[in-house]
Amino acid sequence: MSVKVIQPGLLSLLQDGGRLGQHRIGLTNGGPLDPEAFHTCNRLLQNPEGSTAIEVSFGGLQLEAQVDTFICLTGAIMTLRINQQEQPRWEVLPVTAGDSIHIEFAEQGCRGYLGIAGGFDVEPSFTSTATVMREGIGGLNGDKLAAGDVLPCPAGEIRQRLYLEEHLQPKYEDITTVRVIPGYQQKHFNRYQQRRFFSHGYTVSDRCDRMGYRLEGPAIECDIEGILSEGICFGAIQIPADGQPIVLLNDRQTIGGYPKIGAALSLDCARLAQLRPGGQVHFAPITQHAAHNALHLANSFQQRLTFKERRA
Amino acid sequence: MELHSAGENALILYLGKETSPTVSARVQAAAAAIEQALGVDLVDLVPSYASLLIIYNALTTDHMAVAATVRDCIADLSADDEADGNTVVLPVYYHPEVGEDLEALAAAAGMSTDDVIAIHSGTEYRVYAIGFAPGFAYLGQVDERIAAPRQSTPRLKVPRGAVAIADRQTAVYPAQSPGGWNLIGRCPQRMFDPKATPTMPVSVGDKVRFEAIDRDRFLALGGEL
């Protein structure tokens, strides 16, 4: 049983929770850029955590169901139509074999998650189905979805029609504040440079992708030209020679040699990755202790999030 | 030793400031000890030349507990831990046909291509780090006489198996990719095969020796021109 890709849109990728524990052979994480929207999608669908869904960047995805099942779209504001009829997002919806599913271009935000009951049934590579195009790994064949692709999925799954109330749905805006834990080579950025970094706005450049978000704004200077290549963690903010920060995300390379002013909080990277070129970013310093609390609070909030059920 | 925050769930441990087998061996020993001590709280480790990035599960432990564990592990490291890895021999067809920069590199070094080949294949290299791309092993140190800076304009396509030099590092490209290193030959051995076990012939801490082979042997071993 399966779903067929009619139009893939700009960039649609199969993703699960990400590929962990493989950095030592040079493999990066992959996984959803907005884990909050991805996990809520699977929770609404009553799927096991990390079930494979489609990350739809910017929209334009058209599918044809070849099975009776249930789907759910979360994340960026993209109009969802089933057989031309507009449908609610953040809600489990039934589809029958032959139905057309159309996700239009994003009006706000840019990453949507289309999940299916039971998750797409794809063979994992290196413990994960996450597609990393640069490495040619994950998904159907290490690449983005293409017209004609057939995505296997379970048949006969019955799901409650859960939905997330509108006031609980995340709001996607064109501006975001990214909390940053200073550290790494922080000492190589003097106080003036650090103040400059934290007190000015930056704009998302056209060169923003799953590897990293390049930002444009006041150049930050560093007193070292380069460093001995070292491991790069998620959210690390590299400052290359031109002084323009790059926030490294899911598909970053595992090792690099640029100095880093700090690392962005993952919760805020999820919002950053919803920004399109031209979006505005402000940075705010946060201690590692406060970051730890923020992660626990967010986790607790996720666990307490309850859904309502639509009844016929 | 220095230990710094590298993010909400990561610490970076520096065990030296330069590229040396001693520092690299300490990184390896620290990685093994920390992996053992952190157990399920550990998410991933990225060893490199002189540093070790430690990524932990921030919902099951915290930076203070991890930092304390790391300090204990480092205190317990002894010289005995600096064991050598395996030695791996990689065949290389050194020739301008597959090493477009071999002649220019020899000219810049003021020696013949045969001398460059003899020096490159006569040195034992250490695997300092793996990253940049799956299976890309950073090998050092290249003899100073044949060290060469990166090309000012990187090539858009460096073929799989390309053997290259950048400064005092050498590597075999595991897959076709862009790259600015100087190409001196080609290795028929696959450096990353997702379907093989293990997926890579080398790991960090191993030793690598290159063995010069001729064109026929290169082709017989599955090399592609």
From TrEMBL, chain A:
Gene3D superfamilies: Cyclophilin-like
Top-level division of the source organism's lineage: Bacteria
UniProt entry keywords in alphabetical sequence: ATP-binding, Hydrolase, Nucleotide-binding
Annotated ranges, domain Carboxyltransferase: 24-302
GO terms assigned for molecular function: ATP binding; hydrolase activity
Protein name (database record): Allophanate hydrolase
Organism expressing this protein natively: Halioglobus japonicus
UniProtKB/TrEMBL annotation, chain B:
Family matches, as SUPFAM superfamilies: Cyclophilin-like, PH0987 N-terminal domain-like
GO molecular function: ATP binding; hydrolase activity
Coiled-coil parts of chain: none
One Pfam family, short name: CT_C_D
Statement: the UniProt record of this protein carries the keyword Amino-acid biosynthesis: no
InterPro entries: CT_C_D, Cyclophilin-like_dom_sf, PxpB
Residue intervals of the Carboxyltransferase domain: 1-201
UniProt keyword terms in alphabetical order: ATP-binding, Hydrolase, Nucleotide-binding
Transmembrane segments: none
PANTHER family reported in the protein's UniProt record: 5-OXOPROLINASE SUBUNIT B (PTHR34698:SF2)
NCBIfam families: 5-oxoprolinase subunit PxpB
Protein name from the UniProt record: Allophanate hydrolase subunit 1
Organismal lineage: Bacteria, Pseudomonadati, Pseudomonadota, Gammaproteobacteria, Cellvibrionales
